[in-house]
């Protein structure tokens, strides 16, 4: 428990102070955001705002976790290292995307195929390692499992390795792109991430307190390294909290694809490693809604040859086009995120109580 508090606290402090340094450095070097010409006109005033702030979130998380482990004299677990690999790996893909935007002074970075190749490579390496028998613990558990999971592994839905890897790829690329789509207004994705990763910190702590090796029974959780995953989740929560100080409206810095892809990858990693893949759809419901709005918009546009369901996608832009102030959209989407998180945690706890 001490490591969780230390990891979250250090990450928050590093992010809060480090983002201020990043704003000064990126502004001096001209690392400014390019804005879509077809987006809301109110966003044009944001052109030139420093971007790639996700670098600070990633560094704060990794350093915060490392310091927590160092102070408590605990060795990092395989699960936590894999989660950090997916987090940093997806962030590296986003960093390339952001750097190309800045270098070429345009709103588009990596081509969609190149970005997907990068995300796929990271996701597959993560999946192969997470299922590798080389990383089995003394109870014979690998960090991830071949089963599809909701609140725990569904024993009747065990997948062969190829399909398990395909599912991990879908979850990893899906959530990384979902958070990326949500990151369109000042503080929206950052604030939502604070709540979602905070919820996963609680989920991991609860799973650790009810592990099968210490509390056997029908209600126990057969999960690998939940307490160490909680340290990473707390560090990400703290890093996002510190970054939000500077990212809230009017944003002094954007996280860019560096941050959004990394956070989406971390959410996917937690879902897979904690055996809560379908629960993540509820906890991260705001990200799912934003993604669905884009899919509906594109599908309807192609099917009807030009007609639209929303004035603009993703969903937050639709409400902007209706005349809502950006701050109003962000706060109301935060409220929706809180409802999703409360619902997810309620489902998680209710299932445990029902098994008693």
SSE arrangement:
Layout: H1 2-29, H2 54-72, H3 78-104, H4 112-130, E1 147-149, E2 153-158, H5 161-182, H6 188-209, H7 226-247, H8 256-273, H9 279-283, H10 285-303, H11 315-321, H12 326-355
Antiparallel strand pairs: 1-2
Helix pairs in contact: 1-2, 1-7, 2-3, 2-7, 2-8, 3-4, 3-7, 3-8, 4-5, 5-8, 5-10, 6-7, 6-8, 6-12, 7-8
What does the overall shape look like?
globular
| Average of per-residue pLDDT values | 92
Secondary-structure element sequence?
Answer: HHHHEEHHHHHHHH
Largest sheet: 2 strands, antiparallel
- Please give the radius of gyration in angstroms: 20 Å
Whole-number tally of structural domains: 1
Tell me the structural class.
mainly alpha
- Measured between the Cα atoms of the first and last residue, the distance is 25 Å
Helix content: 55-70%
Total beta strands: 2
Query: Low-confidence parts, pLDDT < 50 over ≥5 residues?
Result: none
| Number of H/I helices | 12
Q: Please state roughly what percent of the residues sit in beta strands, choosing from under 5%, 5-15%, 15-25%, 25-35%, 35-45% or over 45%.
A: under 5%
Going across the biggest sheet, name each strand in turn: 1-2
């Amino acid at each position: 428990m001490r490591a969780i508090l230390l990891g979250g606290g250090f990450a928050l402090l590093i992010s809060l102070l480090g983002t201020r340094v990043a704003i000064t450095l990126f502004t001096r070097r001209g690392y400014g955001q390019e804005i879509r010409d077809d987006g809301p006109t109110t966003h044009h005033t944001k052109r030139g705002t420093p971007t790639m702030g996700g670098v600070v979130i990633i560094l704060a998380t990794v350093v915060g976790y490392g310091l927590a482990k160092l102070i408590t004299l605990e060795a990092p677990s395989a699960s936590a290292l894999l989660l950090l690999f997916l987090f940093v790996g997806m962030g590296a893909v986003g960093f390339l995307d952001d750097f190309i935007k800045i270098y070429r002074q345009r709103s588009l970075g990596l081509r969609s195929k190149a970005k997907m190749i990068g995300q796929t490579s990271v996701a597959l390496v993560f999946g192969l390692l997470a299922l590798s028998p080389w990383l089995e613990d003394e109870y014979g558990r690998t960090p991830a499992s071949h089963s599809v999971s909701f609140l725990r592994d569904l024993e009747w839905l065990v997948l062969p390795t190829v399909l398990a890897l395909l599912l991990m790829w879908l979850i990893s690329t899906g959530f990384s792109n979902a958070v990326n789509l949500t990151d369109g207004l000042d503080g929206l994705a950052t604030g939502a991430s604070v709540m979602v990763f905070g919820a996963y910190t609680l989920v991991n702590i609860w799973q650790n307190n009810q592990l099968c090796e210490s509390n056997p029974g029908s209600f126990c959780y057969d999960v690998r390294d939940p307490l160490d995953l909680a340290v990473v989740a707390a560090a990400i929560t703290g890093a996002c909290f510190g970054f939000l100080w500077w990212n809230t409206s009017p944003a002094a810095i954007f996280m860019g694809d560096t941050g959004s892809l990394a956070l989406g990858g971390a959410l996917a990693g937690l879902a897979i490693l904690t055996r809560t893949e379908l629960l993540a759809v509820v906890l991260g419901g705001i990200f799912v809604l934003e993604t669905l709005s884009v899919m509906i918009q594109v599908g309807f546009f192609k099917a009807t040859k030009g007609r639209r369901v929303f004035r603009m996608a993703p969903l937050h832009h639709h409400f902007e086009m209706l005349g809502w102030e950006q701050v109003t959209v962000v706060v109301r989407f935060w409220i929706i995120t809180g409802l999703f998180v409360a619902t997810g945690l309620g489902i998680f706890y209710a299932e445990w109580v029902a098994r008693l």
